Amino acid sequence: MAANMNPKKNPMPTQDPLVRARNIDEVALGYDEQTAVDEALRCLNCKNMPCVDGCPVKIHIPEFISAIKEGEFEKAYQIISKSSSLPAVCGRVCPQETQCESKCVRGIKGESVGIGRLERFVADWHNTFSKEEPVKPESNGHKVAIVGSGPSGLTCAGDLAKKGYDVTVYEALHTAGGVLVYGIPEFRLPKSIVAKEVETLNSMIPIWKKNKSEVKDEDYEIMQTGIDVCKKLNEKYKNYINLSFIFDKNMITGYKASPIDEGKEKFLQLFKERIVL
Ligand code: SF4
Predict the structure, then answer these.
(1) 52, 58, 115: which is closest to 84 by C-alpha?
(2) pLDDT value for 207
């Protein structure tokens, strides 16, 4: 199919203002299949992939967009899920305009490819139509505790579970999702979208405990925490790391505030070996 050289992105369909003024439903409605393919055709499949450099989790962007061009939406989802555990969330609330889309070559003489909109489309398509079940990899025998099921916890849990780690997620509140559920309003990120992502993860990570006081350091080789717990853990937990910066670089302060050097060292080693990301 010929490339689409329109300098403008396909606009995001939205609720009519007079309608949305009377509800709290999501404002953006998402691309349909035809619009997604048309937007995908704006991608030039650049060999040096500058967009991937701008993505914190290094999604294979040109590859998943090429699958959309061919109408292979499930294949596009599988490509994204190799690098992201929350594509429907990231397709909605990631700041693409300062990350992947800011590096897109189509942005030089026009608007960048709508990478976030395409990611959202693919994730929504999968959640609506796909019958594929996530496959739980064989256990590698290592146990990891995740304290808090916010975006960093869910991402860490998903990535480690895909690599065969035996992950347990602890959540003190009644709903998994952390700031995704308690900090982002419904019209921007519907709770049902977060719940669906958690459900998908839950099929790989069957254990969800409700109280972080149940966590025993000696049971786990590594303990990952989000920003909130990081500030509260006391020194009896020797091996915790903080990965909150994955989703919000402002939260790096949480990692820097980590009082236990051993935890930092372990984190840096894992990061270097690309075990976590
Ligand atoms: S930089 Fe833009 S045009 Fe090039 S591969 Fe990435 S998304 Fe496509």
Answers:
(1) 58
(2) 59
